[in-house]
Fold:
Amino acid sequence: MNGNGKTVCMISCMHDLFDDRIYWKECLSLKKSGYTVFHIGFGKKDRAYVSKEGVNIIEVFRERYFVNPYLDKLFRIVTIKKNPYRKIFIAAKDTKADIYHTHDLQIGRLNKNIKSLSHKPKLIYDVHEYYPDVVLSYFR
Structure:
């Protein structure tokens, strides 16, 4: 596999930005194969930087109002707080990647918007967890 200068944007919301599978296996394998790699996910603040391994990290701050994920989501809806997934989409769109790879059911809500980007990127969607459990935990 040779990246031939292509860009891949990995997007996840339920995994740490330095997750064993996504960062250490997938991102670094793609980087080693010649791709420019972005990894976008939730973190402690809004920032963008390049990791020491050469992966572009985009950390999106997600405000937590309640520990309980259901109360947190309800509070954000009722009080009309900004949608944190919108911030992830904007960051992903700005990468202008050739390939977008989404990892979580929650991020799946962005897939239609990603597919409709003007530069017509490829989209890979994968969930490695047992799908019924993922659906049951959708509002986390």
Notes: The CA atoms of residues 2 and 33 lie 5 Å apart. The two ends are 36 Å apart (CA to CA). The chain has a mean pLDDT of 86.
